[in-house]
């Protein structure tokens, strides 16, 4: 008998391990914090399963659906806003059901650590009729993945595994098990189940409601839902990470811990509520559980005490539920660290030129969103993936060509392939005018340098055909596609001026790899204080490697400097000198 092995794992690592142990054969994802590492951990099991970066979340879910139809266990991973992109296939596969087990892992972000909203995936899942499991620690994350696949096949339902930032990036003990030897389900042609034309979909809707009722009844006895009876004066219904806070804040309370948060186990909840004097429902973000419980005529305290925004904590729960304000010392004040582009980031030089030209930028999701903050302050809008191009198009159609002569759309290479392609296609098709700048740094930078369809490398580390973004733009009908070195300030400014003057769609691709990916030895620049005129030109781009001395002269921190040369290009007095070329 082999010894049981327990290891410490991040929640995301545990989810990947659970998928491996469950016998998953196909995984597709688009990187998005806090879900990204799931796929990166899955790669270690590439001899047992296939995993990929898809161009967007919609494609990822469709890939997983195809694998499920063929009879294999499959999954897709994304963050909460990515689930919006995947909504079309997700809502429809809810009607279809599965062949091989199908799980969609969605990571929510209470507290907005890396997102543009605090959307609650449970609300979307309810609307789509999709069952949801929600673990509360790394051990459960692994086991719930395995349970989700088993339940998916048992009830013919795609499942969502909902996680959050705190779970995804917290560590816990996980017991390792062997990979299940799961045989693929045989494929049988079934048009009524897999072709969602209206006549079939009507019948499938009836079927999934039946299945969901069966699952709701089963939820009353499923081990993922459990009651921990203690003092009956206080009873708490909770799930996910808030369960951990409840156990710390009110250790003597009776707790109904829900592992399945859609559908809810009504009978179990009613029985638990009848046994306690005061019932609390503690859940982060929206009152998903609370609204359903109240609709059954059960009195409970919830969002009247607890916030609908951000993350919870044990102290917050203790104060809200018990009125006990924790006595805590004021935390040590760390120095302010406003978000800023890295030293040597090619986006900085682009934004410097745009600011110099007094150009507004319709922005997008990526590192370049930081162009909105001082001292660059160029990016005026950020909505969602691909929206920079579409919103620029809307401005032009609303206000005319002259209105956008001082506007550009800025979008990264990965985001362009994610949803920007369709937006650019729309501009061409609808005879728009406007300049689109694709800031090509050859990676998906914001989520940790993942590859994509234009980098020439897959998630598995294998070489692949690299999409030629310039050729793709030309193929869609863009006549003027210009590629420029992001650090060639003179050519870049000249190009922007020329393209903004056109009465048609044009694309400028600024090409320079993310400085953090470069393995070359960097040049070394130094500042000569005796030559510095204190004009401040080199400080305008806001490079964190540039600081001022007490007398107003400039100093370059050579531990931070990456040798991009932007400061030297801006200095007209030769106060910044290249002293070593490519040899740090």
Structure overview:
This protein is of the alpha/beta class and 584 residues long. The protein is 35% helix and 20% strand. It is built from 20 helices and 23 strands. The protein has a seven-stranded mixed sheet with strand order 3-2-4-5-7-6-12. Strands 15-14-16-17-19-18 form a six-stranded parallel sheet, sandwiched between helices. α1 crosses α2 (36-42).
Short description:
With 584 residues, the chain is α/β, with parallel strands linked by helices. Helices cover 35% and strands 20% of the residues.
Keywords:
single chain; 584 residues; alpha/beta; 7-stranded mixed β-sheet; 6-stranded parallel β-sheet; 20 helices; 23 strands; globular
Enumerate the spans where pLDDT stays under 50 for 5 or more consecutive residues.
none
How many alpha or pi helices? Answer: 20
| Beginning-to-end CA distance, first to last residue | 55 Å
Tell me the β content: 15-25%
Element layout with pairings:
Elements: E1 5-10, H1 11-21, E2 26-29, H2 36-42, E3 50-53, H3 57-69, E4 74-79, H4 80-85, H5 87-96, E5 102-108, H6 121-128, E6 132-133, H7 138-155, E7 159-164, H8 165-168, E8 171-176, H9 191-194, H10 198-218, E9 226-228, E10 231-239, H11 241-249, E11 253-258, E12 260-262, H12 266-275, E13 278-282, H13 288-295, H14 314-322, H15 346-356, E14 360-362, E15 379-381, H16 387-399, E16 407-412, H17 413-429, E17 434-440, H18 469-475, E18 480-485, H19 489-500, E19 505-511, E20 524-527, E21 546-548, E22 554-556, H20 566-570, E23 576-580
Parallel strand pairs: 2-3, 2-4, 4-5, 5-7, 6-7, 10-11, 10-13, 14-15, 14-16, 16-17, 17-19, 18-19
Antiparallel strand pairs: 1-8, 6-12, 9-11, 20-23, 21-22
Helix pairs in contact: 1-2, 1-7, 3-5, 11-14, 15-19, 16-17
